[in-house]
Amino acid sequence: MKKPLIPHSRPTIGQAEIDAVSEVIATGQIAQGEQVAAFEDEFAHRMGVKFAAAVSSGTAALHLSLLSLGVSQGDEVIIPSFVCTALMNAVNYVRARPVIVDIDPVTLNIDPAAVVKKVTASTKAIIVPHMFGLTAEVTELNKIGVPLIEDCAQAVGASHNGEMAGSLGRIGIYSFYATKVMTCGEGGMVASNEKDLIERVRDAREYDNQEEYAVRYNYKMTNFQAAMGRRQLDRLDGFIARRRNIAAEYHQAFDKLTLGLPPIDAGHIYYRYILNVGRDVDSWIFQMQANGITCAKPVFKPLHNYLAGRHCPNTDTAFSQMLSIPIYPSLSDSDVERIIKAVTEISTRFNT
Prior knowledge:
seven-stranded mixed sheet
């Protein structure tokens, strides 16, 4: 009998989320309201910041964060290449210029040394994604003196030297897409210790019922999304613990293989478990799929490949060699065993 397919990603949703959403829908108060306000307060407290504003997506959070910092046409915003296009889109939304830099080959996060080389008088922000659940070198990046937007879309609950991701720059943004660390289906959050920045975000996320006209957006979160988000936030510690336990099993099983493993760090939440397979990753994806396990490249396409004349050699190497295998709380123990067995067999076959 054929074993069921193990997907690359899967949300962890239970009866608590179903009940919370159903209760809100039954009230008829489904637009932005009390649930959103409660979610904002609870999320800010959990992330170690003073203020938060819920929005419709992580991309909306990036867009409004740039606006809140006053980034506009002619300004430059530094972003890494090994990331999704949402960052470049948000920079283009405000008509600034995205400046693409390379990554650290070990952490796969933005390389502070590469950032320093690209800073000019026109640099108004650096977007710092904490890739795959591991925080970037925020301490070093803060020394540059340019406002940091921490992109915590893959790092809700991660920490850096004991401090929460999203609390270390001027602004932290989060995504609650279906396959993220915690989910509302869609949705995002902007967090900061600076009240004026969050007030600007709240002003810009809602276009109507304003005394003075300005270009604003329909970036609100609904009450039933927030109700789901609150229940997911209640479960966040359990989600992270399960991810770390699976990662520990992977570490132990794969340490004897000729594969590069993710860095071990106390603040890592292992949103993704990234293996360096040291060869064309497409062949690995095919072989894993043949074993009923869906794997993927960590990003669809590096950003510098969309732009002529840009060179990011560490990103190119990562794109050709890095494989993301399933790691999420709803994986069963038997699923984890299947994944370990398949990776071990394929690695042995490719290296004999």
